[in-house]
Structures are given as C-alpha cells and as structure tokens.
Amino acid sequence: MAALPLPDLRPPPKRTHTDTWPSLHAPRLLVVEDDVQLMPLLGRALHWVDPDVVLDWATDVGQARSAIVENEYRAILADFMLADSDSGLSIYADCRALQPEARFAMMSALPISLPVDAVGLLNKPFDLGRVRDFLRRLLDPSD
Predict the structure, then answer these.
(1) What is the per-residue pLDDT for 11?
(2) Per residue of the chain (143 residues), what is the pLDDT tens digit?
(3) Going edge to edge, which strands form the sheet with 121-123?
(4) Residues ≥6 apart with Cβ < 8 Å to 87
(5) Is 4 in contact with 56 (CB distance < 8 Å)?
(6) How many whole angstroms separate alpha carbon 72 and alpha carbon 30?
(7) Integer Rg of the chain from CA
(8) What is the pLDDT of residue 89?
(9) How many of the other CB atoms lie within 10 Å of CB of 108?
(10) pLDDT of residue 141
(11) Prior bond to 111 cis, omega within 30?
(12) Residue ranges with strand state E in the chain
C-alpha cells in the first residue's frame, strides 16, 4: 500500500499564466507516523518552511517501505514507536540501501539512541515553532 498523501493545507498559490505548472523536481519528505492527528501540524510547519515540498505520509512500516521504493525523498522522518508494534528504526536499513542520499531523522516521546548519521530527534510533545526549526534543518542539504 502506498503512502497516504497529505491534504494540501496551503492557501491557493498566486500564479501568473507563465507559472502554472508545479516543479517536477520539488523535494519530497516522507513522514512515518501512526497518529494522524499530527498530520495538520506537521503539514503546516512543513509548508511554512518550504511551500513547494511534497509531503507523503505512511502510518506503518509496510507503507513506508513501499513509498521508499516508489519515490525519491530528500528526507524521511520516522516515529520511533508505531501502533503495529514496529519501530520507525526498522525502515532505516531500507532508507540507506535504496536512498543513501536521503536525510533520516526520528521523533519520539522516549529517550532513544539514533543511528550515527541521523539528522536528529524531534522530541514529542512538540509545538509548531520547534517543528518548523527541526524541519528546516532536516530539509537543508547543506546542514
């Protein structure tokens, strides 16, 4: 099953007649999180950071693996504990094998150990400002 797309929460873009097509090379972010109530918060924060980014949402490891096979991601943000008793860390190997250039980060309410090359840990609960700062760092390839 493919990742669930996030509903577009942005206001309609102001475009001219020469700028009617979205970029074919817009960066993509995959969020692996089973709590769909976080979707609007993460979506708003992400589109504030980069209005062109495409956000894919997976609620379990199976959906995440399918998404990683089907799409190219700039970054993957995975929750540590998922409802199906699996861990977001279990997709780390797939991420590194299939998309070694993708930046990888975790989010959790628990203190956890991160993979050596992970960008960081987004601690739950979180607020919009902290999520924005974290997503900015996650999506910035120069960081």
Answers:
(1) 52
(2) 566 666 655 554 444 444 444 455 678 999 999 988 888 888 889 888 888 889 999 999 999 999 999 999 999 999 998 877 778 888 898 889 999 999 999 999 888 888 888 899 998 888 888 889 999 999 987 76
(3) 4-5, 54-58, 28-32, 75-79, 103-108, 121-123
(4) 80, 81
(5) yes
(6) 9
(7) 15
(8) 86
(9) 18
(10) 76
(11) no
(12) 4-5, 28-32, 54-58, 75-79, 103-108, 121-123
Per the structure block, which two tokens stand in for 68?
């990683």
- For residue 58, the cross-strand partners are 32
CB of 77 closer than 8 Å to CB of 105 = yes
Residue recorded with tokens 């096979």 = 69
d(CA 129, CA 19): 31
Residue boundaries of the structural domains of the chain? 26-139
Fold of 26-139: Rossmann fold (3.40.50)
